What we know:
ten-stranded mixed β-sheet, globular
Amino acid sequence: MWIAIVVIAVIIILILVAAMSDITCTVRFSKKGQNDRAELDIYMLYGLVRFHYEMPKLTFENMKKGFLLKLEKGNSNRQSGNAMNIRINKKKIEFWAHDFRVLLNSTVALKKWLQRTFAHVRIQELNWSTSFSTGEAEWTAIVTGILWTLKTTLIGWLSFQVRVKNNPRLHVIPEFRDELLFSTEFNCVSRLNFGLAMYASFILLSRILKIEGGLKKWIRLYRHLKENKQKVPNV
């Protein structure tokens, strides 16, 4: 009996400790000329659970085929693991829009759930620097103002969706040269309490179960997405 009590007490303590931890998501993107690179790191349970994704290649083929994105998933040591190619074009976007409509019809107030969940997300760090040249000084000055407006508008909209804890560091650096240049670096660190994430998951599940056949539609959609992944071996 005492052993059972100790085991239950340990389980409760572990659950409480886990609930007080954060899920940390770090997004990095850089573009310098023709070189693009994006990385996504997710840490949970004090770093015991880690996920690492890389996008080393994004190629635009033509208007019909659209973009070809290569995505690599690594382990906790950032060693390359599974890789897949994802094609993004008009047909793919319409497919995603259809899937989102299916989820909306399979869940009670899904949009409200998304808004309430994102309201608990905390942006700890946000840096976005862009340098460019249009080749002409006059147009470079005009584009500088446009970029500042675009960045401040996006950050203003973001501040209404999530909690921005620290002031974002935004930079627009015009370079008055006689050639076309463009480079940008983006870094964002966000956190969500693990306990709140689990609570939100239970709320989502309850909203799905309120719709007749809602859970079956989610499972069917998940299997369909999994079957359509085009996996390729590492090079």
